[in-house]
Amino acid sequence: MRTFSFVTVDVFTDRRFGGNPLAVFPDAEGLSDGEMQSLAAEFNLSETTFVLPPADAANTARVRIFNRTAEMPFAGHPNVGTGWVLAGMGRGHDGLLRFEEIAGLVDVRADGGGMVTIAAPQPLSLAEEMPADLLAGCVGIDPGEVVISSHRPVAASVGNSFVVAEVTADALTRAAPDLSRFRAAHDVFPFLGPRRLPLYLYAPDGKSAEATRLRARMFAPLSGTIEDAATGSAATPLAALLLSLGTADKARYDITQGIEMGRPSLLACTAWRAADGIRASVGGGCVPVLKGEISL
Fold it and tell me: Hey, which residues are catalytic here?
């Protein structure tokens, strides 16, 4: 019988049972693809990560990320949480780690005070727009509550695609996913992959001296996540998209998520203009929760 250790952490929070929970297998060598997918489904979290030896010794690890139904090319809170776990185990160098993932290399920095920041592996790319009435039906709001003055709902990615849409503050609070509407919308908007139509909604929430503040919610019921408590791989393309709409070279965005779920999260995002396009990073705190072993 083979035994594999795991830990769980709450990510993008400073308190246990806040943020987004993540399961991490720090030494997953020997697990098959099917076993990884089964373990992710068993934990029933938005994602589970499996750490393997890197293909290139210059990198820290190869990290595979699975949601309940499929492997993901990149995700935010899994990288932040995995970086926090591995840094605590003494891996990496001076708090710097680099992960090999499907979407590319992910640079991770752990500051020693509990904050972990990751750089998304790709510059901003924009794809298909989603009709406002189609999006509104999926989440039970009126099409007029989708704000299109800055941008229309659009598939945006820095390594993992989401439909990003601004809505009114009241609509954001009331939004609730309708599974049948999601299925119907996927039939006419299938561009993000099978069983996948993640909608990331946001509303302005004021400004501080350091950052623009936003509130956000993410719904992806077709892949098993009715609502996500913190979505770093959606927050990063949002930050990059917002920067692209203006003339600044760099901007900071503090995004709160998970409030309606009772799992408050804070994601600190930065977007900047680089030689290959607009890049983004996201950071936050982590809190350990569980540790144990799985026997297979």
Answer: 47
